[in-house]
């Protein structure tokens, strides 16, 4: 049984104050942990913190790239609108074709954006949705300009089939996760 440092009275386990003299009881220091456990815990904590820091840096880098691409796309859309309006006002193109030219231009912008994302290190391989959207808008614009008003649904069906066949081929080439 431990003894009080002040008066020497025996102290029951778990007491923090001596019942005889009222002085605070000093607790013995905890036993030292095993040597291997400290280094392993420190190493695991260090690796976890390092991984979290790398993830945060990667997210920050992607956000910066996304902001840059978004500003460029916004500028391209304004240039497209201004160019089409200028050409229509100067009677180079008829106003009735404004929508067709705009859809075709937007399709091209999305395809350019998809190419920029695909060849960018931060967004490697995340351009399929932009490419599909660009192809659809471009096909709609082109069908409007070529006055294929009744056949544009067929263009969409053809694009859908091309996409499905392309995805099916990609799935066959890639290994399945286990």
Binned, the helix content reads: 55-70%
Task: Report the sheet-strand fraction.
Answer: under 5%
Distance between the termini: 59 Å
The profile of the biggest β sheet is: none
Unreliable residue stretches: none
Q: What is the string of SSEs from the N terminus onward?
A: HHHH
Computed structural class:
mainly alpha
Total number of helices: 4
Mean pLDDT across every amino acid position: 79
Radius of gyration over C-alpha positions, nearest whole angstrom: 35 Å
Shape label: elongated
How many beta-strand runs? 0
Describe this structure in words.
The protein is mainly alpha-helical and 178 residues long. It has a domain at 57-173. Helices cover 66% and strands 0% of the residues. It has 4 helices and no strands. The longest helix has 55 residues, at 35-89. The protein starts with 34 loop residues before the first helix and ends in a 5-residue tail after the last helix.
């Amino acid at each position: 049984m431990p003894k009080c440092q002040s008066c020497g009275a025996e102290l029951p386990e778990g007491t923090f104050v001596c019942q005889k003299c009222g002085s605070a009881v000093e607790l013995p220091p905890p036993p030292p942990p095993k040597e291997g456990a400290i280094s392993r815990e420190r190493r695991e904590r260090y690796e976890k913190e390092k991984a979290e820091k790398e993830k945060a840096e990667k997210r920050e880098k992607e956000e910066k790239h996304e902001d840059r691409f978004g500003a460029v796309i916004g500028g391209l859309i304004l240039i497209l609108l201004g160019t089409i309006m200028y050409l229509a006002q100067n009677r180079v193109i008829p106003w009735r074709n404004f929508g067709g030219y705009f859809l075709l231009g937007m399709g091209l912008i999305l395809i350019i954006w998809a190419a920029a994302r695909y060849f960018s290190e931060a967004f490697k391989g995340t351009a399929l949705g932009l490419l599909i959207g660009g192809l659809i808008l471009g096909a709609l614009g082109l069908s409007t300009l070529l006055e294929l008003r009744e056949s544009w649904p067929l263009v969409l069906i053809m694009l859908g089939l091309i996409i499905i066949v392309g995805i099916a081929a990609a799935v066959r080439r890639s290994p399945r996760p286990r």
